Amino acid sequence: MKHSLARARVEIDLGALQRNGASLARRAGVPLLPMIKADAYGLGAAAALRALDVLEPWGYGVATVAEGEELRHLGVTRPVVVFTPLLDQELTRVRSARLTPTLGFPAEIEAWRSAGGGAWHLSIDTGMSRAGIPWRQVSEIRHLTELLPPEGAFTHFHSAELDDGTLEAQERLFREAVASLPSRPRLLHAANSAAIARQGRSDWDLVRPGIFLYGVGSGSSAAIQPEPVVNLRAPIVEIRDLQAGDTVSYDATLRVERAARIATLAIGYADGYPRSLSERGSVLVGGTLAPIAGTVTMDMTMIDVTTVRCEVGDVATLIGRAGDTVLTVERVADDAGMSPYELITGLRSRVERTYTGARS
Ligand SMILES: *Cc1c(COP(=O)(O)O)cnc(C)c1O
Q1: Is residue 20 domain-resident?
Q2: CATH code of 180's domain
């Protein structure tokens, strides 16, 4: 690994991403609707497509019209569902890119009908209070769903990683709401990654995994575990010896009490390495954990390598696998006081992305 890296880089294991998708599909027993919103959780939608398309998913899920248009530019012909409510002025673009909107409130369904209509999925709110029609109001839109029947209907769980009964309760509300429609939409879906892990074989027609594909599971007791996908690395670009009383980084939050050796990594918060890891996180150098020293700065991060053998040019692993040791996304996110979703979607475009193989 020596001298192979000039700056921070995220290495994405597309083979692992693909195997994670296959493992979800096996467990759920129904076609996937993989969520590749936010540029595949920050890892690159084009590459994620290469890995996932061989699994023959039913379609793909995105959050914005622009993300959907990008998939079309990349040659995706499968359905692309946009999972955020849209304003009327976006509907023309939705139609011309042949995207599938998710609608809930009567005004949204009317607007889609007057824009010319087309396939849409009914978004039913069973507890998120974020998007979609509240489950108890679904019977009020019967007439609209008769005029323009939805291809699908779905809900979203708020606590799928918890074993607290809420997932089952939300599913009961979803079932009840769907039963109040004049006819059953062809494609019903509810499960995100954690729900697939929890429930096994799906009662519905599609599942919508996201984070698991990208290497983050829902706890060590979950029935299926993903393979790690993200490896964030940065080179050591300088090393210095400090004497007792010397200070490190902004605000001099670290003043060493005895002689120490400090290495500088070419990565900072402008690369998406969270500043909240200041004095809290660790990185792997060789197989050894080295603590972050002082405040993470915009472009550089210092680590304490007093007891770690290393030299300039060595590559540190900030997330992922180094030899036999893995610094998981969950562990780093926990140190940073963030969710794993926030951590991986926050890796910025300045970080070079490289990909290793997937079966095609
Ligand atoms: C992001 C998202 C998912 C995927 O959730 P994960 O927890 O990442 O598996 C599923 N459904 C909807 C509506 C989403 O917005």
Answers
A1: no
A2: 3.20.20.10
CA of 38 to the centre of ligand 1 (A): 11
List the residue whose alpha carbon is closest to atom 6 of ligand 1.
210
Q: How far is the CA of 36 from the centre of ligand 1 (A)?
A: 9
Same-domain pairing of 172 and 281 = no
Cα 92 to ligand 1 centre (Å): 25
Distance 27 CA to ligand 1 centre (A): 17
Pocket around ligand 1 at a 6 A CB cut-off: 35, 37, 83, 156, 192-194, 208-212
37 is a catalytic site residue: yes
| Residue pLDDT, tens place only, 112-148 | 999 999 999 999 999 999 999 999 999 999 999 999 9
Are residues 170 and 235 both part of a single domain? no
Q: Which of 39, 62, 83 to mutate to test the pocket of ligand 1 (most atoms within 8 A of CB)?
A: 83
Amino acid identity for residue 185 in this structure = P
Q: What would the DSSP string read from start to end of 247-280?
A: EESGGG-EE-SS-EEEEEES--GGGT--GGGTTT
Mean pLDDT confidence for 25-30: 98
Examine the residue annotation and report whether 269 is marked as an active-site residue of this protein.
no
| 3-class secondary-structure state, position 240 | strand
Report how far apart, in Å, the C-alpha atoms of 307 and of each of 162, 239, 294, 310, 325 are. 40, 13, 17, 9, 18
Of 172, 205, 238, the last residue of a domain is 205
CA angle 145, 132, 337 (to 5 degrees): 160
The residue segments making up the domain with residue 285 are 230-356
Measured from the Cα of 196, ligand 1's closest atom is: 9
Regarding whether 253 and 188 lie in a shared domain, the answer is: no
Kindly state whether residues 184 and 91 are assigned to the same domain: yes
pLDDT mean across residues, the chain: 96
- What is the atom index within ligand 1 of the atom nearest the CA of 341? 8
Task: Please count the structural domains in the chain.
Answer: 2
Pair (178, 250) in one structural domain? no
| Confidence (pTM) | 0.96
